[in-house]
Design a protein that fits this description.
Elements: H1 5-24, H2 33-51, H3 56-73
Length: about 70
């Protein structure tokens, strides 16, 4: 049996985005853009960490990949 990794990651991302947005607006109705992004990113990682066990090397590669994508989006 194999897990459908893409589907699991999609759920992690969707849940993380929703939870992160709620967290960003927890104490203020007008959070800053960077604060919203940070809260969503943290929430996505929490969702992923709940469902996957990463070897240290793999986790570092994933973080580096997100860092690379973040640099490209600005």
């Amino acid at each position: 049996m194999r897990a459908k990794i893409r589907k699991i990651l999609e759920e992690c991302i969707e849940n993380g985005l929703q939870y992160g947005m709620m967290r960003a607006h927890k104490h203020t109705d007008t959070p800053g853009h960077d604060y919203i992004i940070d809260q969503m990113e943290n929430a996505i990682w929490l969702e992923i960490d709940e469902r996957f066990d990463f070897d240290r090397d793999l986790c570092d590669e994933v973080v580096e990949g997100f860092d690379h994508l973040e640099k490209r989006s600005y």
